[in-house]
Specification:
Length: about 950
C-alpha cells in the first residue's frame, strides 16, 4: 500500500455502487461526468466527509463543540486520507454585517494598518490633527521662527492670588501682556485665563526648552506661542503656509501646541487610534444612526402608493384597501375633504403640501406616518412585523453616507483616504494605492508587516479573478462561485501543506479568459504538497488536470460507477462522453434543431428597451432585448452583467409588476413594458428553507400523489383524505419524529446525534399510512424513488408523468423525489424553478386564469452551473420550448455551449470593475466570433 495514494475500498454513499479507487496525492484530480453520476457523492460525501470526520475526532472534546461534524460515509475503508477542506459553491452568509473585507480578514488587517499610521483630520476645518512633545515644539520653533520674538503662554483656571504667589504676574488679554493687578475687575467672571510664562527671542534652545516644559506642565500639556514678525515681504508670505496658526494683528500670530490629538484651531480632540475604532460591528465605533449597516430602512412612498395614477377615492394607498384597514381609509377621506384635498385627483398631480399632509396628517386625520407609528407599537405580533417589512426600503444612511463608521473613525486617514473610502474601491485600485503609498521612513517601518499581508491577500484576489470586487461589498450578495473563489484566495494566502482540498466547480461565474488562472492556482496548491480534487465540467480545467475520474455512465441509479480513472494522456485515448467533448469529437450535435430566429432579430421582433443604465460600473448604456427570442448576455467577470440585467432591468420590471419592492439601479426609462405580461427571475436561491421542502412539494406533485393514494380501496375503507398522507401535518405521519424520519438527540458536550426513528424506522409514516399501496409501493417508497424511476412507475398517470418528463428533460432525472431542498445545489434549484414554469404551461386548464403562459420575460443567471456538456444540450432544448410558447428568455452566461445557440448576444466589457460597464458588442453569435476587442468573440471563434 503506497502512502502516496488515497485508497478507497467499497464506497456505497448515495448512488455509488461499491466502488474501489486509488487516487494519487499531491496532484490535481478532476472528477467529471453527467449530472447525477455520483461526482459529489464521491468527492464531498465520501472523501471530504471522511477526512473532516477524522480530523475533528483528533481534536479535544471542547474544540469539537464549535465545529460541525459530518456523518461518516458508507464505505468499507479509506486509507491515507488527509485533513480535508471543502470549498463549495454555496454562499452560507445571510447577515448584512459580513463584507468581503471581514470575510477574508483583509479589513481586520486594514484596521491594524490605520491604527498604526493613520493621521486624524479635523472634521470642521479639515486641518491635520497632530500631537506634540517638548523636543518637537523646540525643533519646530527653531526651524521656522529662528531669531523672532515670542511670548510663551498657557491657559489655567487657577485663582489669580495663587498665580501671583507663585511668581506669575502677567496675563495675555486682547492681544497684549497685562499686569494681573490691573485686570482683576475685568476678569473676575472668567473661568480661565491665559498666563504669560516667558518673553524671549527664539534662538536659545535651553531657555526655550525650559519655558516649554514649564508651560507644558502648568497648562496641562497645552500651550501657545505668540510669534512677532520681524519683517514684511517674503517672510510674511512664508508665514501664510504655516499650519496651526492664525493672525492676531499685522505684526503677530499664534501657534497652538498640544500633547493630545486635538485640532489646534477648533480644539476638537481625537482618541489614540486602536483597531477597534475602525470596526463597524462595535456598538461604540459604528455609526449611531445606522448601527454600522450603512443604510437605514424607511417607509417607501413607491411601495405605499404603487400606482400614482390613482386617486385617494380609487385606492391610491394600496394598504388601506384591505378589509382590516378600511377605517384608516375612511378617516383619511373625511379628513382630506375637510383639509381641502381633492380625493378624486390622481396622486401624481398632488402638490408638495398635499403630499406632506397625506403622510404627516393634520388636525383632521391621521396621516400615513401615523398609521405606521401605531403599527410600530404592535411589533410584538409576527404578522405586524411582516406587514411593516413589506413597506420599507433601505436607503443610504444620511449621517455616515453609507460608510458604517462613526465620525471619529472616519477622521483618520492615510494619504487623505479614510478606511471606508478605501474599502469602497475595487481590489485592483486598492492594491495599486497601497503599493504606492507616500509614507515617512518611520511610518513605513511601523506598517511594514501589516502592509505585506494585505498586499499578499489582495494579489491572490486578483489571481482568482475577483479584482473587480470591493471590500465593502456585503458577503451575502456574492454568488456561489464568487464566494468559493474568495475562500480559494484565503487558502492560497494560508500556504497550508499536506491538506486535501475538495472544490466544487471553481470556474462558476468566470469568463473562459479567466479559467486559466484557476488552473494555475490549483497547480500551485498541489506543488505545496496538497491534493486537489475538483468536481468540474469545464474543458480547460479538466485538460489541465494530472488525473481524471469520470463517473457514470448515466445519472441517478444509472450512475455511481467509475467509467475511467487515470492520467490525462490515457484519458484522451478513451471514448467516454467527457473525453469526446475534450477532444472536440461529436460536436456535430451542437445546436442541432435549434436555428437562430433571424440574422438580426432587432429588425423583425418587438423590443424591450432600457435607456441610460448607470448604476454601479455601468456607463450610461442602452439595452435592447428582442422579444420572443433567446438573448445571452456575456462578458468577463465584473463587467456589469448582473448590474444591468438583474439589478436594473429585472428590478425595474419587478417594481412595475409589483413583484419586488427593491429599487432598481439608476436608469432613465424603459420602453416596451406593455409588450410583456410579466417577468420572472429564475436564480439559484434555494427552493425551500427547511428539509421538509423537496422537489415533490415544490412542483406540487405531492398533491397529485396524495390524492392518488387517497383513492385506493384501503384508504377509502378507512376514510383517509389526501391530507392524511402529508408528513407536514398530523394524520398519517409518525408523530414521534413529526414526519422527519429521524430524531435529534442532544449530547451536550458532544455533538448532537441524529438517529433513525425507532417507531417508523426512518419511513416518516405510521403503519396505517404505509399499509396503503399503489402498484405495490407505499407513500414512503415513492419518496425514495428517483425521477427516472418514478417516470416509469407513474406511466399511466398523465399529470404526474408530464411534470416528471420535464425534470428528466432538464437533466434532473437522478434526483430523489423526497430529497430535502436544503441539499440541492444552486444549479439544481434553478432548474427546478424552470420545471415549475414549464409544468405550469403544460398543465394549464381553462379555469386557471391567473397563470401566465405567454408573453413572459424569463431572466436566468448562469443556469448551466453543474451541467455536463450533454446536459447543456438538453437544457437548451427546454429553453427553446419556453420561447416557442411566446416567451422571451434572457440568460447571463459564460458557457459557450449556450452563447453559441443564442438568437442575440450582448457582450459587456471590455474588462471588469471600473474598466467595464460598456456594451462592446450586440449581434448574432456568428457576428460575435469576428468582433474585435471582445474576449467572448475570441473564445467563440475557437469554439466554432
Amino acid at each position: 500500500m503506497s502512502k502516496y495514494e488515497l485508497i478507497i475500498e467499497g464506497a456505497r454513499q448515495n448512488n455509488l455502487k461499491d466502488i474501489n479507487l486509488n487516487i494519487p496525492h499531491n496532484k490535481v484530480i478532476a472528477v467529471t461526468g453527467v449530472s447525477g453520476s455520483g461526482k459529489s457523492s464521491l468527492a464531498f460525501d465520501t472523501v471530504f466527509a471522511e477526512g473532516q470526520w477524522r480530523f475533528i475526532e483528533s481534536l479535544s472534546t471542547y474544540a469539537r463543540l464549535f465545529i460541525e461534524k459530518l456523518d461518516r460515509p458508507d464505505v468499507d475503508a479509506i486509507h491515507n486520507i488527509r485533513p480535508a477542506i471543502a470549498l463549495e459553491q454555496k454562499n452560507p452568509v445571510k447577515g448584512s454585517r459580513s463584507t468581503v473585507g471581514t470575510l477574508t480578514e483583509i479589513y481586520d488587517l486594514l484596521r491594524v494598518l490605520y491604527s498604526r499610521i493613520a493621521v486624524p483630520y479635523c472634521p470642521q476645518c479639515g486641518k491635520e490633527i497632530r500631537k506634540w512633545d517638548t523636543s518637537q515644539i523646540v525643533s519646530e520653533l527653531l526651524e521656522k521662527h529662528n531669531g523672532e520674538r515670542a511670548v510663551i503662554i498657557f491657559e489655567t483656571d487657577e485663582p489669580l492670588e495663587s498665580l501671583k504667589q507663585r511668581g506669575f504676574h502677567r496675563l495675555w488679554l486682547d492681544g497684549e501682556a497685562k499686569d494681573i493687578d490691573d485686570l482683576k475687575s475685568q476678569i473676575s467672571n472668567l473661568k480661565s485665563v491665559e498666563v504669560v510664562l516667558d518673553r524671549l527671542v527664539i534662538c536659545d534652545e535651553p531657555r526655550l526648552s525650559d519655558s516649554i516644559e514649564t508651560a507644558w506642565r502648568e497648562g496641562k500639556e497645552r500651550l501657545k506661542a505668540i510669534i512677532f514678525r520681524q519683517a514684511i515681504g517674503d517672510r510674511q508670505e512664508a508665514i501664510k503656509d504655516i499650519s496651526s496658526s492664525y493672525s492676531l494683528s499685522p505684526i503677530a500670530y499664534m501657534r497652538v501646541f498640544s500633547s493630545k490629538n486635538s485640532c489646534d484651531d477648533c480644539g476638537i480632540e481625537r482618541p489614540e487610534p486602536s483597531p477597534i475604532l475602525f470596526s463597524f460591528n462595535h456598538p461604540v465605533c459604528a455609526c449611531p444612526e445606522c448601527k454600522g449597516f450603512g443604510n437605514i430602512l424607511i417607509y417607501d412612498e413607491d411601495i405605499i402608493i404603487p400606482d400614482k395614477r390613482l386617486s385617494l377615492s380609487k385606492g391610491a394607498i394600496e394598504l388601506w384597501e384591505k378589509p382590516g384597514y378600511s377605517w384608516w381609509k375612511e378617516q383619511m377621506i373625511k379628513g382630506a375633504k375637510k383639509s381641502g384635498i381633492d380625493i378624486n385627483k390622481t396622486y401624481d398631480k398632488f402638490t408638495k403640501e398635499e403630499k406632506d399632509a397625506l403622510f404627516k396628517g393634520n388636525q383632521h386625520f391621521y396621516g400615513i406616518n401615523g398609521f405606521f407609528e401605531e403599527m410600530e407599537g404592535k411589533r410584538y405580533k409576527l404578522h405586524v412585523r411582516v406587514l411593516l417589512s413589506r413597506y420599507r426600503s433601505p436607503v443610504v444612511c444620511p449621517k455616515c453616507g453609507g460608510k458604517r463608521l462613526c465620525e471619529t473613525g472616519l477622521s483618520y486617514k492615510i494619504n487623505g483616504i479614510d478606511i471606508a473610502d478605501l474599502s469602497n474601491m475595487p481590489v485592483s485600485k486598492i492594491l495599486n494605492l497601497l503599493e504606492n503609498l507616500h509614507l515617512s521612513p518611520m511610518q513605513r517601518d511601523i506598517a511594514k508587516e501589516a502592509l505585506r499581508q494585505i498586499v499578499l491577500k489582495l494579489k491572490f484576489f486578483e489571481r482568482v479573478g475577483l479584482d473587480y470586487l470591493t471590500l465593502s461589498r456585503q458577503a451575502k450578495t456574492l454568488s456561489g462561485g464568487e464566494y468559493q473563489r474568495v475562500n480559494l484566495s484565503n487558502q492560497l494566502a494560508s500556504a497550508l501543506t499536506g491538506t486535501l482540498y475538495v472544490l466544487d466547480e471553481p470556474t462558476i461565474g468566470l469568463h473562459p479568459r479567466d479559467t486559466r488562472r484557476i488552473a494555475e492556482i490549483m497547480r500551485e496548491l498541489s506543488s505545496l504538497g496538497n491534493t486537489i480534487i475538483v468536481v468540474e465540467h469545464d474543458k480547460d480545467i479538466i485538460s489541465s488536470s494530472d488525473w481524471v475520474i469520470e463517473m457514470g455512465p448515466g445519472g441517478g441509479h444509472l450512475g455511481g460507477e467509475v467509467v475511467f480513472s487515470g492520467a490525462m494522456d490515457e484519458f484522451l485515448k478513451t471514448n467516454t462522453l467527457t473525453a469526446k467533448y475534450i477532444k472536440g469529437e461529436g460536436q456535430e450535435v451542437k445546436g442541432k434543431g435549434i436555428p437562430a430566429v433571424s440574422p438580426n432579430p432587432l429588425a423583425i421582433k418587438p423590443l424591450l428597451s432600457l435607456y441610460g443604465a448607470s448604476g454601479n460600473n455601468l456607463r450610461n448604456i442602452d439595452l435592447k432585448v428582442p422579444l420572443e427570442t433567446l438573448t445571452v448576455v456575456t462578458g468577463v467577470s465584473g463587467s456589469g452583467k448582473s448590474s444591468l440585467v438583474v439589478e436594473t432591468l429585472y428590478l425595474a420590471l419587478a417594481r412595475h409588476f409589483r413583484i419586488e419592492p427593491e429599487h432598481p439601479l439608476s436608469h432613465k426609462k424603459i420602453d416596451g413594458i406593455e409588450k410583456i405580461k410579466g417577468v420572472r427571475l429564475i436564480d439559484q436561491t434555494p427552493i425551500g428553507k427547511t428539509p421538509r421542502s423537496n422537489p415533490l412539494t415544490y412542483l406540487k406533485l405531492f398533491d397529485s400523489i396524495r390524492k392518488l393514494f387517497s383513492r385506493q380501496l384501503e384508504a377509502k375503507a378507512h376514510g383517509y383524505t389526501p391530507g392524511f398522507f402529508s408528513f407536514n401535518v398530523p394524520g398519517g405521519r409518525c408523530e414521534t419524529c413529526k414526519g422527519e424520519g429521524y430524531q435529534r438527540m442532544e449530547m451536550y458536550f458532544f455533538e448532537d446525534i441524529f438517529v433513525r426513528c425507532e417507531d417508523c424506522k426512518g419511513r416518516r409514516y405510521k403503519e396505517d399510512a404505509l399499509r396503503v399501496a399503489y402498484k405495490g409501493k407505499n407513500i414512503s417508497d415513492i419518496l425514495e424513488m428517483t425521477v427516472d424511476e418514478a417516470y416509469e412507475f407513474f406511466s399511466g398517470t398523465a399529470e404526474i408523468k408530464s411534470k416528471l418528463a420535464t425534470m428528466m428533460d432538464i437533466g434532473l432525472g437522478y434526483l430523489r423525489l423526497g430529497q430535502p431542498a436544503t441539499t440541492l445545489s444552486g444549479g439544481e434549484a434553478q432548474r427546478l424553478k424552470i420545471c415549475a414554469e414549464l409544468s405550469e404551461s403544460r398543465t394549464m386548464s381553462p379555469l386557471r386564469k391567473t397563470a401566465v403562459t405567454k408573453g413572459m420575460l424569463y431572466i436566468l443567471d448562469e443556469p448551466t452551473v453543474g451541467l455536463h456538456h450533454n446536459d447543456v444540450l438538453k437544457f437548451m432544448q427546454i429553453i427553446r420550448k419556453l420561447i416557442e410558447s411566446g416567451n422571451t428568455v434572457v440568460i447571463i452566461e459564460h458557457n459557450l455551449d449556450v452563447a453559441s445557440q443564442a438568437d442575440w448576444v450582448i457582450d459587456l466589457g471590455p474588462e471588469g470593475g471600473e474598466k467595464g460597464g460598456a456594451i462592446i458588442f450586440e449581434g448574432t453569435p456568428d457576428e460575435l466570433k469576428d468582433a474585435k476587442g471582445s474576449y467572448t468573440g475570441q473564445y467563440l471563434k475557437k469554439y466554432f
